[in-house]
Amino acid sequence: MTTFRTAGPDDVERYLALRNLVFPHQVNTIEGVRHFWRNVPADEHLRLVAAERDGQLVGFSRAGLNTWSSEEGTAIVFVLVHPDHRGQGIGTQLLAQAEEHLRGVGGTRMQGWSADDAETMRWLASHGFTAGHELRYSAIGLDALPPVPSLPAGVTTATFAELGPAAVYAVDSVATLDEPGDIPNDRIDYDKWLLHVWDGPELDKELSVGVLVDGVPAAVTLLEVDRPTGRGWSGGTGTLREYRGRGLAKIAKGVCLHRAAAHGVVTAYTSNDEVNGPMLAINEWLGYRPVATGWSQLKAL
């Protein structure tokens, strides 16, 4: 018999084991997930549900409002089911509970992200989801990186630790406005960004890099690191519009990955929207290779 209950920080280790099984090309840490769950702002109305059978975690759902978007009522949903326990209604029950919760807190449209396998895509379609933007997951071994491009006159680099949060936010929050996707993240509150991004245990401020032009921050790249496994996740690279076309993002990411390699990171992962040609070109130049495909999934509530 499968039982469903409210989950919390004490479930992080088992949840992460399940997530890593289903999405091995993503990078998350126990400390990072626990920090996120413990510090979610009240207006996001986060609800976590665990599905258990004979003491084993066989499914999990996360549902809450997306308060980083100006589109009112947008929500985020995440449903995981262990591959050995699919086809038994566990995912359907988790999704139903998530939808009921989201409707109750004002959700009108939800977004999730899925794998590309036929079984998952059929299940989502049968539950009313429509596939949106396509994602490319890529990985790179850091033992054979190309040299960092020469820095033009007036261009310098600095770590996030040297720049500080306000300078990084000023670039990251604005550059994100142009990131492709089905739902825009165009209302990024500084305090929430500080809590979720800057204060997140996974963000390595000594390896994440900013590029400055005449002393002004113009581009940034974020690197999250799981030290025990030697894996890193590029959590975002962006350049302010007025500085684009100068190769600053390539410099930022190149410097970042070289620093990561020198500090014990062995493999780096990332994801990009398939229409984000400039970023895909940079990653291919660096040596990233596709490892999986994902999809944004959308459903009206």
Give structural attributes.
alpha+beta; Aminopeptidase; twelve-stranded mixed β-sheet; 9 helices; 301 residues; 2 domains
What does this structure look like?
By secondary structure, this protein is an alpha+beta fold. It folds into 2 domains: 2-135, Aminopeptidase, CATH 3.40.630.30; 139-293, Gcn5-related N-acetyltransferase (GNAT) (Aminopeptidase). The chain is built from 9 helices and 12 strands. The protein has helices at residues 12-22, 30-38, 90-104, 118-126, 160-163, 165-175, 190-198, 248-262, 277-286, and strands spanning 2-6, 47-53, 56-65, 74-81, 109-115, 130-141, 155-159, 209-213, 216-226, 231-239, 267-273, 289-300. A 12-stranded mixed β-sheet has the order 1-2-3-4-5-12-6-11-10-9-8-7, with helices on both faces. A hairpin with a 2-residue loop joins strand 8 (209-213) and strand 9 (216-226). The radius of gyration is 19 Å and the shape is globular. The mean pLDDT is 97.
